[in-house]
């Protein structure tokens, strides 16, 4: 081989080694972000390493031109070209490191945060909120802000130091050393390693199939449990969901962890309380394991299909994304469309795509279906739109199902202009949306029957939150924690393990129990970081010992609620609201309701039962993460008994 060919081959090998180094850094960043090794997710860790090394083949054509140019020009140019190439890679690594740091500290991706800031600063109302939120964050996290500032300062000082160092290095000597056989040998060994890793993972995926069932988790956004037939509703809104309940299990008292989509769905998918997340519009923190990751680590194929502009992988006007974590494929194409059509919230599109995927995929699979209906606006196709109230003639916004129009007025302190007839029509339109989504779910169930998959498929249906219809003076959702917005349905069917017609009544369960239940049925151990519990003991024995409380939160109004037995305790500081909600801010403080005597939560009995209020307040503090607990403790608005204080001190909750 000629010396020139050897030189080109050596330089190509050097370019590949540098590209592989960049790929390894990508892998390490992924492992640090997700913490797979520390959480025993070894298969996922190997996949991250494989994917990072495979990116070497993407970096390679970007780096190779520098080295080929060095070969094309004379010896005197090699050092300078290598220096320029190293500078390019070095600057890229600095930017990459800052991005990784930003993600680790804030849980946002750097680009998503930039888009969020741009969107907020371009809107005067959002800008005012953003500045207030940043001031609040800095005041509550001074130590963290100082650490971030110090790290950024060190990074800025490193840049001139690296520049000075690069000027003193012998780049010509380094370029000449790349022409040796050791470079080609190292590249060949690394290329072999990449091939072996890919082959090993492929063989492992083909040979170690899990024995668990296929899993379909269906979410219907804003679905109240008490508007379904299986929960006693008077209208025939849900024959397909009712059938699921008849053939499986139904839980009568299910409490969502939040009354808005983003924190509620995150809480369910990670089995962690909503305080684990930054706010109502954050990205999913990558350090929290999701259901999809747990199943993927055990060989499941994972797919999500979402018609929601919130439950997305991409940045939208409503979300910074992040829901794709752990999914082989996250299809959000159904969520896109013009505002005047139904495509962005079309259950038919979700179910059609789901059936196409089920037909071609191998078992076992996990299919996450997010149906936007019956979220407002309530405007589904006929015959469902006018099914339950065809004769209404009134306000144009009501006819169009524009609940949000009235929600904004009420939240800003205006008196509601809705009368009883308007609300009756809103509920009728809402019920029509439920019937529309239920009909599409029926198509999915029929296909499972026809293909013989029903007995081998675990099907669960639930929701992120409910909907207000002036029960407490408001409409929509997200700003209160009354039962109309945190009581959600939960039905599940899996014939081999769940007896037909199982009804769990008188027991309080939470949305974050969904994931441990799925993992239990799939024969997968629940990660220690998850806070929910499997519901299978209750399904096997309705009298089995089980947690007796539930915690719900809403970041929009800084409100938290604990439900235990017949008691419901709501506590609000109202100090970090995410929207102008004058009506809600008037109800700061603590409230207590006896749900047996007052199921509508209309009479505050905290003054009559101070011991119970204090006990539930201490329970609330125990359930919260340390930072959130500290914030509430520092802003106490009710006195606690000395015994309660001593208990919290012994547990480390108070100083």
Key traits:
single chain, alpha/beta, Alkaline Phosphatase, subunit A, Arylsulfatase, C-terminal domain, eight-stranded mixed sheet, 12% strand, disordered C terminus
Describe it.
- The chain has 655 residues and is an alpha/beta fold.
- The protein has 3 domains: 205 residues, no CATH class; 339 residues, 3-Layer(aba) Sandwich (Alkaline Phosphatase, subunit A); 94 residues, Arylsulfatase, C-terminal domain (2-Layer Sandwich), CATH 3.30.1120.
- Helices cover 49% and strands 12% of the residues.
- The protein is built from 23 helices and 14 strands.
- The strands form 3 sheets. Strands 4-3-5-1-6-9-2-10 form an 8-stranded mixed beta sheet, sandwiched between helices. The protein has a 4-stranded antiparallel beta sheet with strand order 11-12-13-14, covered by helices on one side.
- A hairpin with a 2-residue loop joins strand 12 and strand 13.
- The termini are far apart.
- The C terminus is likely disordered.
